Amino acid sequence: MSLTADDVKKIAHLARLGIDEQDVASYAKDLSGMLDLMTQMGDLNTDGVEPMAHPMDQAQRLRPDLVTEQDSREKFQAIAPQVEAGLYLVPKVIE
User: Fold this and answer.
1) How many separate domains does the chain show?
2) How far apart are CA 3 and CA 11, in angstroms?
3) What is the 3-state secondary structure (H, E, C) of the chain?
């Protein structure tokens, strides 16, 4: 797919981007190349290919699910301006 200078200007306007007139041709070429690459990727046969979460066969390192802090709810609610039934009361902001 080949984008024209007018297409690039419309895209820039919609994205609220200011581009210089001398850069429009360069942007049109680069964006057209990206769209062509996406078209090529869309034409590939991916039957039997399972989706991957990561391109490398790696697992994410996770920390142990352990409690590391004590419950300080009572301490924090003791200094709160208004508390009722274990909940913080705040002023109404939406009518």
Assistant:
1) 1
2) 10
3) CCCCHHHHHHHHHHCCCCCCHHHHHHHHHHHHHHHHHHHHHHHCCCCCCCCCCCCCCCCCCCCCCCCCCCCCHHHHHHCCCCEECCEECCCCCCC
Pairwise CA distance, residues 46 & 66, whole Å = 41
Instruction: List the domain range (segments joined by +) for residue 15.
Output: 5-43
What is the reported pTM? Answer: 0.52
Per the structure block, which two tokens stand in for 78? 């003791």
The answer as to whether 72 is a domain residue is no
Tens of pLDDT, residues 43-82: 999 999 888 877 887 777 898 999 999 999 999 999 999 9
CA distance 14 to 8: 10
The rounded distance, in Å, linking the Cα atoms of 4 and 54 is 36
Q: Is residue 53 part of a domain?
A: no
